[in-house]
Amino acid sequence: MATLADFRAEKPNWCPGCGDFTVLAALQKAAANVGLEPEDMVTVSGVGCSGKISQYMGSYGFHSLHGRSIPVATAVKLANKELTVIAAGGDGDGYGIGLGHFIHAVRRNIDITYIVMDNHIYGLTTGQTSPTSDKGTKTKTAPGGSTDEPIHPLQMAIMAGAGFVAQGYSGNLKQLTELIEKAIAHKGFSLINVYSPCVTFNKVNTYDFYKEHLIDIDADESYDRTNKFAALSKIEETEELLTGVIYHNTERLPYHEAQHAFPEVPIAKNDLNITREQWEKMAVQFK
Amino acid sequence: MSKDLGWKVGGAQGEGIDSTQEIFALSLFRLGYYVSTYRHFMSLIKGGHTNGKVRVTSDLSGHHGDDLHILLAFDQETINHNFHELVDGAVLVYDSAIKNVEIPQSDKVNIVPVPITEIAKEAGSTIMKNMVAMGVTAAMIGLQPEDFKSVVVDRFGGKGGDIVENNMNAMRKGYDYYKSNFSHSFELPVRPELRPERLFISGNEAVSLGAIAAGCRLLAQYPITPATEVMYQIIKQFPKVGGTVVQAEDEIAAVMMAIGANYTGVRSMTATSGPGISLMMEALGLAGISETPLVIVDVMRAGPSTGLPTKTEQSDALTLMYGSHGEIPRIVLTPRNVEEAFFFTMAAFNLAEKYQTPVFVATDLYMGMNKQTVASIDFDKFVIDRGNMATDEYLATLEKGQFKRFDVEAENGISLRSIPGQKNGRFVAMGNESDEVGVEMEEPELRVKQMDKRAKKLANFDDIAGATYVGAENAELVLVDFGSVAGVQREVYEALAAEGVSVGHLSFARLLPFPTAEIAGYIKNAKKVLVTELNSIGQLRMQLEQFVGEHGKYESYLKYSGDPFLVEEIYAKAKEVADSIKKEVAL
User: B187-203: buried (b, 16+ CB within 10 Å) or exposed (e) per residue?
Assistant: First the structure.
């Protein structure tokens, strides 16, 4: 069986203190804990600081285009449903340029785990407003403060039909590892939004800020995470400053099980050749 | 040229014009004739003018023909738009239900009013107007209503009740009406031998079957005219072989899914038209740099932007050859007929995996949406070659992290490819420039090595003939085209050759790698080269000037109205160029 070391690849070159180190560590630990082999896992990322995670993770990887990790991850899963597929990226990647793909993957209920390293800023391009930047945030591109309503990814995912919606925090490796393990186990689309502070360009949404404000709802035994309305109220109530499994519903079948006539055998293992008989069956409609 | 018959039906969109055309064409096909069709339609669901042409011949043909012998008009607009195409001795049949009908003055055309709507009503329903028209047609061309019955049964047999009989009855009534009131008749061409291997199929359908025969098992596509039929056809056929179709949220997602599936070892493609091609340009570069196989079918339509969504053009050539920022190796195939649309699509999957790079199959609306007789698609010619895949045995000899997916020392630049699930085959497919195992880097020397490695892959490409030449050795006039224009231009070549003109026909089957060595001799030996293409700037001619030189020899014949070429218009231009050569010689 694979060990934690098997999931390590390149040494990361993120800024010292970057929240993404914790996300990588949690992903590596979760993969080892649930008993995956590196070859049976694919990590697909977009572009940005967080997008580099596919190079650092010891699984197969695909460092794709800005905003496009989800369609690649979707196809990897459909091509070989036996693989464990992670899509990962930042808030700019997933909620800005890639927002459309995110919502549509949720609608389809593709069985992948989507980890968004949300730092409320564009880091790799040295500090511009992001889709989750709080109103009033001053950046190089919004010197007077952002006036746009931030994207609310947790609510959006729930409303679009996601069965597993969680939020983690880079200051809590243990919880984040557990969240990833649960997300991998969930059959269908899982979102884990992770507050992953940018220590270089975001001086507002810092470790100290989160330490002070985050509420851990995993510790709340009275919370009914299977109730959509309870989940939405909880998110509103806490102004999105919560961690844990926020919503979990296993009623929907994942796409590859729900889809009419989806092949039983993983498609990647199919014989490519068609028989003469199959060919004749196809050609007959043109006679 | 064989004697042929041109037949056309027209009316308002939504009036069953397509199905009338289909019933006529398929019936004649089943009798053994070769048929070529052309559908004129608009980007509307109901109300616009639409018409369907069928050309019936004794031999294989790649064009729907200029001549029209029979025009069936369900409305006034059909007469207005198409009357001028009728040849000497032709017949216009119109529905006498058309109010205040206006027919142009002509001594050449026979005018036949038939109460089509009324007869259909008598037979049970005005819906059966097309059957009445079919009966009239049968009476004119020496066939019996029974000759159309097998198609009527296929079409309506499943609907139960007396539907088949009612339709046949309407057809017989149309037949009888014509026989009792008119006598104009047309001889069909010589009926060829019935050959069961022939297919009556469109370019879009052929592309779909070619993909499936090549092992494509995941299609990701966004609906777009004129490529949507690829999706329909594959959805219909996949249950027979096991595959899945994803209707993506946009063309960017569609192409990224095709890339993701190919990366995972599943042959996959996307099909689209101009607007989708534009959206796919960034992903094209990703497939190139990450060396992921990718097949994209472009059913070209008239651009730019939304352009003319239901009209044909060949204006994407430059985009396919040069589009996307940065530089990647790529292959651009341009099938010239429906049979090639099948085999080139099949080849595209082999080439994409052999060279680990994107491959375009560029057809166009004209070829994509119109059916024609294909002599045969031979099962014994089906080949699948997956290229340089890393075996499990080879990977087992490596230590963790040793597999060089992007090995710069690989022969011809083509390195081993592993797929997820293979132990020790781990790598990262990269949009960034990377080292040999797939870690991003910016070392100048290694960057150059990786660029050169990728460029080298196609340096000795000789997998598919780049062009076909027919004609006189050292022909003075060479007619050049790519894609579906070859069909119509071949007829021009044949006419000129029959007149004794020193002429050749050079048609391109691929644009990249550009087949310079194969074709340069024909250009160099010619006095004049006429490049005929459906775009406004002469995109193929620009390539000839760039790759072959010989500036000053080229003449362009361009059309960008949205309609396909007619034989006569190319002929007139070619004749003019041929005459100018004669004059120069005389001087």
Answer: ebbeebeeeeebbbbbb
pLDDT over 50 at B146, yes or no: yes
Kindly report whether the peptide bond that precedes residue B304 is cis, defined as omega within 30 degrees of 0: yes
CA distance A218 to A245: 6
Residue B253 sits at the chain A interface (C-beta within 8 Å): yes
Mean pLDDT score of chain B:
96
| Cis status of the peptide bond prior to B513, with omega within 30 of 0 | yes
Judge contact between A42 and A60, C-beta under 8 A.
yes
User: DSSP code of B261?
Assistant: H
- Probe site for chain B from A52, A72, A81, A271 (most B CB atoms < 10 A): A72
Residue B400 vs residues A3, B424, B506: alpha-carbon distances, Å = 13, 6, 53
Tokens of B156: 């309506």
Contacts (Cβ under 8 Å, ≥6 apart) of A50: A20, A23, A88, A89, A90, A93, A117, A196
Complex-level ipTM: 0.98
> Is the model's pLDDT at B586 over the cut of 80?
no
Q: Tokens representing B315? A: 């204006």
What is d(CA B149, CA B27) in angstroms, rounded to the nearest whole number?
A: 8
Strands B86-95 and B110-114: parallel
Residue-wise pLDDT tens digits, B13-69: 888 999 999 999 999 999 999 999 999 988 777 778 999 999 999 999 999 999 999
Take residue B579 and report the two structure tokens written for it: 């005459």
Q: How much of chain B, in percent, has pLDDT values that exceed 90? A: 95
Q: Are strands B34-40 and B49-57 parallel, antiparallel or unpaired?
A: antiparallel
Q: Output the CA–CA distances (angstroms, integers) from residue B321 to B89, B318, B446, B484, B543, in the order listed.
A: 47, 5, 26, 18, 10
CA gap B148, B144 in Å, rounded: 8
Q: What residue in B sits closest to A261 (Cα-Cα)?
A: B239
Tell me if residue A251 falls in helix, strand or coil: coil
Classify the C-alpha dihedral B209-B211-B216-B222 as positive or negative: negative
**Average pLDDT per consecutive 10 residues, chain A (287 residues; last block may be shorter):** 94 97 98 98 97 98 98 98 98 98 98 98 93 94 96 98 98 98 98 97 96 97 97 98 98 97 96 96 96
Q: What is d(CA B440, CA B431) in angstroms, rounded to the nearest whole number? A: 9
Sign of CA dihedral B16, B22, B24, B30: negative
Q: How far is A205 from chain B (nearest CA, A)?
A: 29
User: Which helix (H) or strand (E) element contains residue B394?
Assistant: helix B392-396
Question: What residues in B contact A74, CB-CB < 8 Å?
Answer: 246, 253, 257, 260
Reduced to 3 states (helix: H, G, I; strand: E, B; else coil), residue A192 is strand
pLDDT above 70 (res B552):
yes
Residue of chain A minimizing CA distance to B217: A267
Residue B325 pLDDT level (bands cut at 50, 70, 90): very high
> Residue B59's CB: how many other CB atoms inside 10 A?
14
Locate A36 and state its tokens. Answer: 């995956």
pLDDT at residue B2 above 50?
Answer: no
Cα separation, A100 vs A94, in Å, equals 9
pTM for this prediction: 0.97
Q: What is the pLDDT of residues B228-248, one digit of tens each?
A: 999 999 999 999 999 999 999
What is the C-alpha separation between A84 and A77, in angstroms, rounded?
7
Confidence class for position B251, pLDDT limits 50, 70, 90: very high
Report in angstroms the alpha-carbon separations of B571 from B91, B431, B552, B567.
26, 49, 21, 6
Which pLDDT band, with edges at 50, 70 and 90, does B207 fall under?
A: very high
Best of B222, B259, B295, B428 to substitute, by most chain A Cβ atoms within 10 angstroms, is B428
Q: What are phi and psi of B34, to 5 degrees?
A: -90, 135
| Contact in structure between B463 and B343 (CB atoms under 8 Å) | no
Query: Which residues contact residue B29 at a Cβ distance below 8 angstroms, ignoring those fewer than 6 apart?
Result: B35, B198, B200, B373
